[in-house]
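Show me a record, fold above all:
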Amino acid sequence: MKREIEDVLGLDTEDAVVASAKANIGMEDILENIVKMIPPPPDTGDEPLRALIFDSYFDPYRGVVVIFRVVDGNLGVGDAVKFMNTGKSYTIDEIGIMRPQKVPVNRLSAGEVGYMIANIKSVADARVGDTITTTKDSSTEPLPGYSEATPMVYCGLFPTDSDQYEDLRVALGKLQINDAALRYEPEQSSAMGFGFRCGFLGLLHMEIVQERLEREYDLGLITTAPSVVYKVYTSDGACVDIANPADLPDASVRDRIEEPFVKLEMFAPSDYVGSLMELAQVRSPYTGPHTTPSAWRTPFLKDFSRRISPPTPRFQRPPATPFNSASDAFELHPDVASYDGTTRSNAAGSSST
C-alpha cells in the first residue's frame, strides 16, 4: 500500500502510520503521533479574544451553530462578541464542546475547540474564516486567511410553471440561510419568463442546489447552460466582469475577452497516462502540458470529470484548483479575442462546454 501511494501520488510514506479503524489496528500509534507531531497551543489566555470560525450550520430551532477554535483569550456564556469581518455583534446564549454530541460548558480558553449559539439568523453572518472577538477590549488584528466565497459558475434557473416563481424565490432564500456561497438575483428572459441568475462555487455545487430545489421544494426547473465570469476589456482600457451574456458589451467597443483558467492535476498508474493525455489534448486544444505530463492549464468550465471514468475506471474525479495569482488565473483565449458574437457563442456563456 505504501509503495502504491508513493508511485501514484508521489507522497513520502516513511512516517505513515499503518492503521485500520475497521480492524482496530494502529489506534494507539495515531494518538501517540498526534501528541508527538502537533505542538500544544501557546498560553495566550490573557490576550484579547481571537477565535477562528471553521464551520457553521443552521439549526431550525436554535439558529446558526458556530464551530470555532479559541486562538487567544477566552470567552463564556453571556459575553458580547462580534465577528470582525462581517461586523455583526451578538450575546452568547450557549457555549460548549463536541464529544461528538454538544456538551455545554461555562467557558472556553486558548487552544480549545467548541461551538457557540447566539441567536444568529443566517450562516452568512458567521462565515468560515472570520474572527470572533469581544465587543469590549476587542482585538484590533483579525486572524489571517479570511476571504469570502466567490461564485465561479453562473446559470439561470427558471420555473417550468410561471406560477412557481414566488415559490422558487422563497426556496432559494431558505437554501441561502445554510449556504453562504449561493448567490442569486432576479432575471427576466423573453423566452422563459421570470427566474433567477444564480452563482455557484462550481458545477457540483450547481447540481446539488438544483437537485435540492426539485426534491425538497417540488419545483420544476429549466436550467440554462453554465457560464463563468469573463473579464472584458474595452477599447478605452476599462475592465468589466461579465457573468451574464446579456451584459456583454457591443463588439465595436471590445478590445479582448479573458476567461478563467485552472491547473488540473491527474493522478493515475502509468498504464492510463497516455489515455489521460489524449483526453486532455482533445478537451483542451488551446493548452498543452504544464510543468509535468499530469498537470494541465485548461479553461475553468472544461468538464473532464464525466469523461475520466472510461480511461481510468479505478480512480476518482480529478481535482481542479484555480491559480493563485490573477495573472495566471485569467488567460487570453485566441478564439475569444476574435469573438464576433457568432463564431464562438461559448465565449459569451450561451452554450455549455
